[in-house]
Design a protein that fits this description.
The chain has about 290 residues and is of the alpha+beta class. It folds into 2 domains: about 1-50 and about 155-285, no CATH class; about 55-145, Alpha-Beta Plaits (2-Layer Sandwich), CATH 3.30.70. The protein has 10 helices and 4 strands. It has a 4-stranded antiparallel β-sheet, sandwiched between helices. The longest helix has about 45 residues, at about 150-190. The chain is elongated, with a radius of gyration of 30 Å. The model has no long low-confidence stretch (mean pLDDT about 80).
C-alpha cells in the first residue's frame, strides 16, 4: 500500500510527464480498439458472405433430375460445400413473380419453360468458391455459372490486409509506448537519485525502491487503456446508425455492451503487462 501511495505522489509531482505517458498509452489502445472493431467487423462480413449463396449454377433445359442429383452428390463429397439449394423451374417462376409483382407486364408471359432450374451454393470458406465454380463450369448439364469472383477476392484480400496492417501498427505503437515510458520513468528515477541513495543507506531493498515506479507504470498504462477504449467505443456507438445503414443488412452491428466490456478487460490485462514491462526495464537500467 505504501508503494501505491508513493507512486501516486510521484504522478502528482510531475503532471506533464504523467500526461505524456498517458497520452502515448491512450493512442496505443485507441488504435488497438479500432483495429479490433474493424477486424471483428470484417470477419463477420466474410462469414456473412460465406453463409449466403455465392455461386449460382443454371441448368440446361435438357438436364434430367438424375443428372442434377448426381452433380449435387459430387459437390457434397468435396467437403467444400456448406449448403446447396436446388431451385426448380416452378420455384424460379414463383420467385420471379414475387420480385416483379408490382409490374404485371413483366410476369404476364413468364412460364416454367422460360426460366431454368438452378443451384444456389454456399462454401465453407470463401477461398473455395473458385474451385467450386470451375467444377460447375465443367459439368455438361450446366448452362451458366454466376460467381462474383472480383467482389469475393477483393473482400478476402481486404480482410487479410487489415489484419497485417493492424498487427504491424499495434506492435509498432506498443514498442514506441514502452520506449517513451522507459524514458519518462527513467527521468523520474534520475531526479530521485539522492532519495534512493538515502533509502539504501537505511536498509531499503531494491524491490522496495522499485515497486513505486512499477505501480506508476501500471497506472499510466491502465488509464491510457481506459481512455483509449472509451474514445473508440463512444465513436463506434455514435456512428452505429450510419454504419448499419451503410452495411445494408450485414449482421455486424450493433456491438453488444458485454463485448465492449470484454474488450476493455483484455486491454487492461495488456496494459498491466505493458506497464510492468516498461517500468521494469526502466528500473533495471537506472537502478543499478
Amino acid at each position: 500500500m505504501k508503494a501505491v501511495n508513493t507512486a501516486w505522489r510521484n504522478v502528482r509531482r510531475s503532471p506533464y510527464q504523467a500526461l505524456a505517458a498517458i497520452l502515448i498509452m491512450t493512442l496505443t489502445f485507441l488504435v488497438i480498439s479500432f483495429f479490433v472493431f474493424i477486424l471483428v467487423g470484417s470477419s463477420k462480413t466474410v462469414s456473412y458472405f460465406e453463409s449466403v449463396p455465392q455461386v449460382t449454377a443454371f441448368f440446361k433445359n435438357e438436364a434430367s433430375q438424375e443428372d442434377i442429383n448426381a452433380l449435387e452428390n459430387e459437390l457434397s463429397q468435396t467437403g467444400k460445400i456448406s449448403s446447396i439449394k436446388f431451385i426448380s423451374k416452378e420455384e424460379a417462376v414463383e420467385i420471379y413473380k414475387e420480385q416483379n409483382k408490382d409490374d404485371p407486364i413483366l410476369i404476364e408471359f413468364v412460364t416454367a419453360d422460360v426460366l431454368p432450374a438452378s443451384f444456389e451454393i454456399s462454401a465453407n470458406k470463401i477461398e473455395e468458391l473458385g474451385p467450386i465454380s470451375e467444377m460447375l463450369k465443367d459439368s455438361p448439364i450446366v448452362e451458366q455459372v454466376i460467381y462474383q469472383k472480383d467482389v469475393i477476392s477483393a473482400l478476402t484480400n481486404w480482410t487479410s490486409a487489415i489484419r497485417k496492417i493492424g498487427i504491424s501498427l499495434i506492435v509498432l505503437l506498443s514498442l514506441v509506448s514502452v520506449f517513451i515510458m522507459v524514458t519518462i520513468i527513467g527521468i523520474k528515477i534520475s531526479h530521485k537519485k539522492e532519495d534512493i541513495e538515502i533509502m539504501r543507506l537505511i536498509g531499503a531493498t531494491n524491490w522496495y525502491i522499485r515497486w513505486p515506479f512499477i505501480f506508476e507504470g501500471i497506472f499510466y498504462a491502465c488509464l491510457g487503456a481506459i481512455v483509449g477504449w472509451a474514445i473508440a467505443s463512444g465513436t463506434l456507438l455514435y456512428f452505429t446508425p450510419f454504419l448499419e445503414s451503410f452495411l445494408k443488412g450485414i449482421p455486424v452491428l450493433p456491438v453488444s455492451y458485454l463485448s465492449l466490456l470484454a474488450l476493455l478487460g483484455l486491454e487492461l490485462i495488456l496494459a498491466v503487462l505493458l506497464g510492468i514491462l516498461s517500468s521494469f526495464l526502466a528500473v533495471l537500467r537506472y537502478l543499478k
